[in-house]
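Lab notebook: predicted structure, single chain.

Context: the supervisor wants predicted structures on file for every construct in the current expression panel, including those that have not yet been purified. This is the next one on the list. No modifications to the sequence; it matches the entry in the shared construct table.
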Amino acid sequence: DIGAARKRVGDKVALQGNLDPVALFAQPEKIAQEACAILDAYGPGSGHVFNLGHGISQFTPPEHVTALVNAVHEHSRKLHQI
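Prediction complete. Output recorded below exactly as produced.
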């Protein structure tokens, strides 16, 4: 849980928070929901590197990767306006 990790280490280090790459086989709306949950758990502020837990499968639909990137960018902007 990236939120618990952030509480433990504070804001003095960057943290990389991971989405299970299998989530990229879900519908784009679910992908966005999962990405936003990770971003919300980290909270506002800097120091979060959003990433996948490991590589992307060659069978992952490219439009699902696009949905993830768009969701992370859009939700991150909202969090940084707080």
